[in-house]
Write a structure and sequence with these properties.
5 helices
Amino acid sequence: MKNSEEIHFHNLLKAEIEKIALRKIAVKRDFEYLSAHIMDRTGAYISPMTLRRFWGELAGGKYNVQPRRYTLDVMARHTGNANYEPHIKNRNGHTDSG
């Protein structure tokens, strides 16, 4: 089960992805588009079904599964971060010094 901090960062990630994709991700066609968009930008594949699970669009929005780190990393790369960890640090106002 996701904790409130994870949910918060996942929601921020979704919002950033929708901004980059220039559309609200809501219906099956949107997830197919987003899967292709992510592949074009990152060279990595995330299936439309995985994206639907992440957006909570399966089982009446009650599909509560922790996404794999690979999925989070690819989606973070789509937003311009190296992986998911810098995405979290950037959202917390932390920067790496070194």
